[in-house]
Structure to design on (201 residues):
């Protein structure tokens, strides 16, 4: 039996659906008004990662530049330390050089050649020199009369001694030894007492 109801008309093939057509028209209208269209989720996430990457890159370049500046500054400071590290010591030595020059001038200007005065001047300069070295941690090693210590003494000769208590002791120095802040700078060159060789039959 025939019915009076008309079937719903289907859209022609290739024609956009009403909802899609409406969405397209809405996007065109928003674009004409200058409104920013919503981006797909994947594209928005990519842009966010790119911005984050750019920020990290700028941070890395800044830190790299800071580190390069630090290296240059450290090299410059180390070079200056090597070049001028002994400035205070040199300044002290210049005072001694001045006093030694005065002593020499005085000795030359004395018509009588006062030997005692010249010796006194040299002794004064010598004391000043030792005091200056002591300020910078340099001290003489005790040697004469001490038990021979291979850590601080260098035996250059041995001499037989009468007293048994003198065996193994330093009899006298050929050259003074010195410590720098407790570390060996130069050993004392010494002569050490030894027992007498056995009598030949």
């Amino acid at each position: 039996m025939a019915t009076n109801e008309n079937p719903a008309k289907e859209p022609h093939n290739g024609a956009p659906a009403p909802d899609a057509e409406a969405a397209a028209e809405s996007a065109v209208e928003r674009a004409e008004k200058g409104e920013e269209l919503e981006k797909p989720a994947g594209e928005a996430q990519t842009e966010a990662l790119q911005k984050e990457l750019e920020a990290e890159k700028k941070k890395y370049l800044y830190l790299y530049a800071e580190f390069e500046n630090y290296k240059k500054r450290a090299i410059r400071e180390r070079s200056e330390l090597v070049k001028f590290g002994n400035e205070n010591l040199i300044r002290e030595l210049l005072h001694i050089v001045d006093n030694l020059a005065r002593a020499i001038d005085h000795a030359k200007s004395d018509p009588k050649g006062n030997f005692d005065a010249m010796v006194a001047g040299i002794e004064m300069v010598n004391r000043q020199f030792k005091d200056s070295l002591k300020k910078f941690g340099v001290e003489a090693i005790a040697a004469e009369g001490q038990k021979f210590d291979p850590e601080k003494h260098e035996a250059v000769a041995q001499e037989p001694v009468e007293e048994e208590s003198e065996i193994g002791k330093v009899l006298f120095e050929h050259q003074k030894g010195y410590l720098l802040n407790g570390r060996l700078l130069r050993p004392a060159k010494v002569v050490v007492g030894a027992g007498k060789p056995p009598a030949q039959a």
About this structure: The beta strands are 138-140, 153-160, 170-175, 178-180, 183-186, 188-194. The chain is about 50% helix and 15% strand. Residues 40-85 form one domain. The chain has a mean pLDDT of 81.
